[in-house]
Amino acid sequence: MQQLKTRDEVDAAFRDPLAVVYKHSSRCPLSSDAYAEVSEFARAADVPVYVIDVIASRPLSLYVSERSSVTHQSPQVIVVQHGICAWHASHHRVSANALRNQVDTLRGAN
Q: What are the beta bridge partners of residue 2?
């Protein structure tokens, strides 16, 4: 997973044909579980997976919310396809299986 630290990096991620952006809070036990799920997905994924630390980079996290039109939550995963949010999930709905299913579905739609 690649850490996003600037707006330019977020903008570049949104230009990817298909990408995953994970918003992580180091203060939240649920985020730790979600991080493990996203990491599992990322190990086998052939799409870029990005992570934002919502504590250290709150303004950047809010920028992602603005860019994606998805209300900020954490943990949260946003699947971006051609610059728009194609799917998102938060809290207990963040899982490796859900990500795989969504990415596979989106690829089938192309």
A: 50
